[in-house]
Amino acid sequence: MNNPIVMKKILVIVMLLAGFTAGAQSFESTFQQTKTLKLTGKKILSEGTISYTAPDNLAMIYSKPDGDYFIVDGPFLRFDLRGISLDVNTDNNKTVRMQRNAILYGIAGKYEDIAKEMDADCTVSDVKGGKHVVIKMRKPALKSYTGMELDYNAKGRITRMVLEEAGGISTEYLVK
Fold this sequence. Notes:
The protein is of the alpha+beta class and 176 residues long.
């Protein structure tokens, strides 16, 4: 095929397809969660399975405690965690949308997007076998995260996420 116009069209189509699939990422794994109440030092342990498909589908199904779940399906965030339930369209709730995005961006390795959206400082360190990221919000909202720590393996997959909340609660997720 020596027709330059046809070749340009094919190249444009290939580039568009590459752009659409470049961010495609999905995985399924197990996780352990440790929620620490800093005031009392009490630790609450949980575990389950996590399924993620970029850009905005996440399901955390807990086996301990059995029946708990945390689901992001597009703009919708639904959870039932130890009897506390929420079902919200994040397009209509800025605070919950920012929290949803922080988790999704963290899993996807888009820590710069977290920093931009949440007006935060972001420090990235190369560590043996991956990256360590620390994010500190400049002006944390009362009902939001004050900071995050993210660890990624050499392939860029999330292995650890720590969410720090304004109320002194720290939640660490270890992804196998």
